[in-house]
Design brief:
The chain has 182 residues and is mainly alpha-helical. It has four helices and two strands. Bound molecules: protoporphyrin IX containing FE (HEM) (2 copies).
């Protein structure tokens, strides 16, 4: 794929943040949604889910700081006003969920019924100082917002594929590492 000019693509750092976090979120949605059914035989799945989720939280903090200092490229002129609004709303909802999902998971795992909380067995992750009520509420929120996030990701991916294969513009290309090759 051809290299895109700097003002028509995301920075290479933004691109790697996007794909690293996307891979981890997809893994966590799959584990979260299927750990009691298809993945029931995989005993360590929730331990991995928790460690991956905490990693998403840390990477998202770095990603937001980078994003505040680096504006994304403007959308191509063929994108209608309502589509710009929808894309903006979806992106900010995804950013919010990238914080809220790990935080609610961490809070619910810090309630009275505690299981080991480690980062891939390498070091312990501290429990949050939350009440039983907050942990219970966080559990509900984690479940409901998990479904919301899965739905938003499906819409987000469908929109990206529509740009690439139907509208044939550069919206997907500018989020690919090959667009930023030097
Ligand atoms: C990117 C971050 C995360 C995503 C997208 C995510 C998503 C999900 C989803 C969709 C579920 C299934 C909801 C249900 O059926 O109850 C789930 C369950 C769960 N999550 Fe997360 N999660 C994330 C981070 C975390 C973190 C950081 C922790 C803890 C430190 C955590 C702990 C759990 C636990 C213990 C369950 C099982 C709940 C149960 O079976 O009742 N999650 N997660
Ligand atoms: C699964 C988890 C994913 C999450 C949480 C996520 C989140 C985001 C966020 C927050 C942005 C906005 C970036 C910004 O302008 O600051 C974005 C942009 C983008 N994402 Fe994702 N994404 C995910 C997966 C994917 C996948 C699988 C694809 C492709 C099939 C994709 C394609 C894109 C594209 C093309 C853009 C740029 C849109 C534009 O230029 O306006 N994303 N993503």
């Amino acid at each position: 794929m051809a290299t895109l000019p700097r003002d028509e693509r995301y920075s290479i750092v933004a691109i790697w943040f996007h794909w690293a976090i996307a891979a981890m979120v997809i893994l966590n949605l799959v584990i979260g949604l299927f750990h009691e059914s298809l993945l029931a035989g995989w005993k360590g799945s929730i331990g991995i889910h928790k460690a991956v989720g905490i990693t998403v939280l840390v990477l998202t903090a770095g990603r937001i700081l980078w994003r505040l200092a680096h504006r994304p490229p403007t959308l191509p002129a063929n994108v209608a006003g309502w589509e710009r609004g929808a894309a903006h709303a979806a992106h900010w909802a995804l950013y919010a969920l990238l914080f809220i999902m790990p935080l609610t998971g961490w809070a619910m795992s810090s309630g009275p019924k505690r299981y080991p909380l480690t980062w891939f067995g390498l070091f312990d992750i501290p429990y949050l100082p939350v009440s039983a009520g907050t942990a219970g509420f966080s559990h509900e929120a984690h479940e409901v917002l998990g479904f919301l996030m899965a739905g938003l990701v499906v819409i987000h991916v469908a929109a990206a594929l529509r740009h690439h294969f139907l509208l044939r513009d550069r919206v997907l290309a500018r989020m690919l590492p090959s667009a930023a090759r030097h």
